[in-house]
Amino acid sequence: MVYGCYSMKNTVILSPYEVVYVTTLVTGFIVLLLITIYYALRSRRIRNTSVYLSGEPESVVSSITPSIASLYWGFIKKFAKSLYKVLVERVHTGSLHDWYKFLSSWFSLLLIIAIIAFILTSLIG
Amino acid sequence: MEISTLIFSITIFPGLLFMVSLAFLTQYLVRKLSARYQRRMGPSYVGPFGLLQPLFDFLKLLRVKEIVKTKYSMIRAAEFSLILGIAFIISSTILLPLSPYNVAGEFDILVFFYMTSIMPIFMLIIAALTTPNPYTNIGVSRLLSVLTIAEPAYFASLVVPVYLATRGKTPFMSISNTYIYVPNLWLQASTLVIMLLSTLAYIISVQVKAMFPPFNIPEAEQEIIAGFETEFSGPILALARLLHDLDLTIALIVGVYVLLGGPAPFRHFSVNGAIVLIIKYTILLLAVVTVKNIMGRYRIEQALTQIFKYGLIPALLSSIFALVIYH
């Protein structure tokens, strides 16, 4: 069911490429129009000032590039909380045993996978 | 159709003059309704009921106020970027059925989305970065963070109804063809849920695009001064404000057509149809302003989670339902 008496008599149906061409041309026309209006109307007054830094001098931001380590820890602490929790509670507990247990468990798993892969490769060729 | 109709469409209605006027009216309504929510008067003195306040604010910034420039500012680049963003929004109106010279074609919703959602934001970001400042950089990074989640939600909330409405019809995925069949989508049980999910995703993502609370993180005054627009002043600030208002206006217009069926149950260019269009536009605007005024600002990580939950997930669900039911 279609409501009302709709018609598309005001509509020009074009191919997708032609739609892009037409809209781009129209955009270009509007840009020229807006530039003309804008530069005719805008205020000509310009005041030079320093960068707004809440009253601080520029030197406070001259070397604020964060280090790679800060970015890494920022990412781990903010977005990989569960991984960070594992690192703190299971690996870096202060006990060397915990660290060795964690690493050896994963190394063992990797070793088993490597052995299985080796056997399969040998059998299948 | 004649070239004069095309010129009329892009310069007068619904092009430059109409869109700029509607953007000012939308800004007025946002300010007035927000003021009433907060028991203030809002704009009251300039023009009848304060209606001309946004126009006078714009003219004052454009003609009277000075451009404040630092040695790092690239004023011309900022001006050109903002003008280009405005031009993309205004020229997109020829893709709307509202235009007396309406251009349509298969997949024109993608062209429309590119012109009204991607390019304006991209141009705003370029303009912000041409006036560098630490607060600007933080504002831009926040804007990019929230839009990374909100834009896909906005896109899906529009594309799904367009797909459902134009399935098996010519031109496929065209806005001009969509609004005719949208009322049917609200009346069928199978598509009603999809339309509700799309509308929810649309409201949330428009809130983010307009940078209204609770998602006004990119311009949070108490934290990062004015965020991405910290170094904007005078005529550049006027252009940035106009671009923001036009962005909201075009998002509401396309919402009226794609989600609410445009002038349905009446026809275009009739008095009843125009009244219905105004009512639907006002309802969507009221929804956005209400959310703006009953919510406080989220922190960035809270906002990302909320946009994901209430914007992206409904949009994804509606897409999945649409594909499962109709593909």
Task: Describe the structure in your own words.
The complex is a heterodimer of chains A (125) and B (327). By secondary structure, chain A is mainly alpha-helical. Among the domains of chain A are: 12-42; 70-125. Chain A has helices at 16-41, 68-79, 81-91, 96-124; strands spanning 11-14, 46-48. In chain A, 6% of the residues are buried. The model of chain A is unreliable at 1-5 (pLDDT under 50). With 327 residues, chain B is mainly α. Chain B has one domain (63-326). Helices cover 70% and strands 2% of the residues of chain B. Chain B is built from 12 helices and 2 strands; from the N terminus they run H-H-H-E-H-E-H-H-H-H-H-H-H-H. Chain B has helices at residues 3-11, 16-37, 53-64, 75-91, 108-129, 134-166, 175-187, 189-209, 221-224, 234-258, 271-294, 300-326, and strands spanning 67-69, 102-105.
- Average pLDDT for all residues of chain A: 83
| Separate helix tally of chain A | 4
- Give the CA-based shape of chain A: flat
Query: Total number of β-strand segments of chain A?
Result: 2
Compressed to H and E, one letter per element, the order of chain B equals HHHEHEHHHHHHHH
Helical/strand content category of chain B: mainly alpha
The tally of strands of chain B reads 2
Helix content of chain A: 55-70%
Q: Report the uncertain regions of chain A.
A: 1-5
Low-pLDDT segments of chain B: none
Q: Biggest interface pair, residues each?
A: A-B, 45 and 69 residues
> DSSP strand (E) fraction of chain B?
under 5%
Which sheet architecture does the biggest sheet of chain B show? none
Radius of gyration of chain A: 33 Å
Q: Which percent band covers the strand fraction of chain A?
A: 5-15%
Mean pLDDT of chain B: 90
Main sheet makeup of chain A: none
N-to-C series of helices and strands of chain A:
EHEHHH
Number of domains of chain B: 1
